[in-house]
User: Which sequence fits this backbone?
């Protein structure tokens, strides 16, 4: 589905270039639920943005369904079926939830079709469909609407950047249910979730551990998760202070 | 109704959503002349005798009726000034649709200036919609300088929807209002300028009565090299509440000057203003691009939503 070949990314840092992603090679298989985890500052969100085209790599190549998409922009990648859900959902004055779902679907969804997407993410559709996507919505509501836009888009590869960020426990429980449902019922979609949360890691088919801009492990949940939860990576992930 | 040409009919659709002769009372003005008028049992429209313009008298207790008074101009170089007075009785519930469309394909400036005065009786409810629109590829300017005065009696309510989205080269919109006890004014202004256009929008609201309130919200977009000045002033002269909001998107080389002001002349006046000017947030563009829109399409969606 997705292949990253020697991908690197540098960003300016006080006059110097900081290397955020260091020559990553990755193979993301089709129709799997993949969780990318690792310590803060390890490059996870940058990697997600590189996949969606929001950031451009400093080096290396990205292949999507066999096609080199390294030079494609955000729009072209979206049109090829790559979806992206933001860590902090974006607010829009004037655009309603229905407007956003229609843009996502790329067609004039009927209200009942749009409501189905909201119901899928646990929102009572009639209460939300005509609301503006603005500051009147809570973080948890925005997060679920963000996920609904990805569902409405019917993407082949969905990337979620820390969906648990900024939401309360109740909303988080709903979020887990949504991902569990996606994993069980959506076999025709590859899902990549950037997350620290054990409950999300627990539903992964495969886990990728990223630290200091490098992949330090990739494998099935049954093998990787116990190692994360144990001490094996602690020394690598949290280098000792000299 | 007099026969309107295709350009005038198009302007009529743009400013008043009229595809045919409206139901109820109406007065249509085309190229400086009356093009159609209808009064009803409760709404009487008569011409003024001293100046150009009309008087609209709405009887006490008139409910669920509407008045349309659009103006269309398709003749280059025409300049006119009209005085329209609305006398709305007590306990009414009516919709008034005004608006002006100018199509100028010539080299002379076309200008329509109007002074609308509303005298709203106690406990009446009025929805007023005013849309301004310009078109035509001539070098002559399309100029609109409307002045709106609203005098609200006790317990009355007025909602004003003021829209200018396209094609007006120069405008100076002045709205003044004076409210008595428990009267409430709600204004929603939508304004977009482009090219070399200039727009000045001035509101001066006097909250004179106990329990009176005003909520004035202006959303605007300045594109290209256009300039806008938004001057929203609320004076609290009694135990009242007032809120003004200028929210603007600036693009290209556009310029916006927002001058919100509040004046409290009573210790029980509660007044708030908000003002924000900024470009479209990059993250908004990126979000819509991840949904498959190009950057230009994303920009249009954001603006259309903002001005909706």
Assistant:
């Amino acid at each position: 589905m997705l292949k990253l070949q020697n991908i690197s990314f540098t960003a300016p840092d006080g006059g110097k270039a900081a290397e955020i992603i260091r020559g990553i090679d990755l193979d993301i298989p089709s129709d799997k639920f993949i969780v990318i985890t690792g310590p803060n500052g390890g490059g996870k969100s940058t990697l997600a943005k590189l996949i969606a085209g929001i950031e451009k790599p400093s080096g290396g190549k990205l292949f999507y369904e066999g096609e080199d998409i390294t030079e494609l922009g955000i729009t072209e990648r979206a049109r090829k079926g790559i979806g992206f859900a933001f860590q902090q959902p974006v607010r829009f004055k004037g655009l309603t939830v229905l407007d956003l779902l229609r843009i996502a679907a790329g067609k004039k969804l009927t209200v009942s079709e749009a409501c189905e997407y909201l119901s899928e993410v646990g929102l009572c559709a009639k209460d939300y469909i005509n609301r503006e996507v603005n500051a009147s919505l809570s973080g948890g509501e925005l997060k679920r609407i963000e996920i609904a836009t990805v569902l409405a888009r019917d993407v082949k590869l969905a990337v979620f950047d820390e969906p648990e960020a900024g939401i309360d426990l109740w909303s988080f429980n709903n979020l887990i249910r949504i991902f569990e449902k996606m994993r069980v019922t959506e076999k025709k979609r590859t899902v990549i979730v950037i997350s620290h949360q054990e409950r999300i890691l627990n539903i992964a088919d495969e886990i990728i551990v990223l630290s200091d801009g490098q992949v330090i492990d990739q494998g099935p949940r049954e093998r990787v998760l116990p190692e994360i939860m144990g001490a094996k990576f602690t020394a690598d992930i949290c280098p000792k202070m000299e | 109704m007099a026969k309107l040409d295709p350009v005038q009919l198009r302007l009529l659709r743009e400013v008043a959503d009229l595809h045919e002769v409206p139901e109820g009372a109406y007065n249509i003005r085309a190229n400086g002349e009356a093009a159609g008028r209808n009064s009803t049992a409760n709404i009487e429209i008569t011409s003024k005798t001293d100046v150009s313009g009309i008087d609209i008298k709405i009887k006490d207790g008139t409910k669920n009726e509407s008045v349309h008074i659009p103006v269309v101009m398709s003749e280059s170089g025409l300049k006119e000034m009209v005085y329209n007075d609305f006398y709305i009785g007590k306990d009414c519930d009516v919709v008034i649709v005004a608006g002006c469309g100018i199509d100028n394909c010539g080299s002379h400036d076309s200008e329509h200036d109007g002074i609308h005065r509303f005298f709203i009786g106690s406990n009446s409810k009025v929805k007023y919609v005013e849309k301004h629109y310009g078109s035509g590829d001539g070098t002559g300017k399309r100029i609109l300088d409307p002045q709106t005065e609203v005098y609200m009696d006790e317990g009355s309510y007025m909602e004003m929807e003021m829209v200018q989205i396209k094609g007006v080269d120069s405008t100076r919109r002045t709205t003044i209002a004076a409210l008595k006890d428990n009267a409430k004014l709600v204004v929603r202004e939508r304004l977009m300028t482009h090219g070399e256009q200039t727009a000045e929008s001035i509101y001066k609201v006097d909250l004179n009565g106990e329990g009176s309130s005003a909520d004035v919200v202006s959303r605007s977009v300045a594109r290209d090299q256009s300039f806008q000045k938004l001057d929203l002033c609320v004076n609290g002269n009694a135990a009242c509440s007032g809120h003004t909001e200028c929210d603007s998107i600036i693009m290209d080389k556009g310029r916006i000057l927002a001058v919100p002001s509040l004046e409290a002349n009573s210790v029980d006046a509660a007044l708030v203003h908000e003002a924000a000017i900024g470009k479209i947030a990059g993250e908004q563009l990126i979000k819509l691009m991840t949904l498959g829109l190009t950057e230009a399409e994303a920009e249009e969606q954001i603006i259309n939503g903002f001005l909706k």
Q: What stands out?
A: The first strand of chain A starts at residue 2 and ends at 13. Confidence is low (pLDDT under 50) at residues 235-242 of chain A.
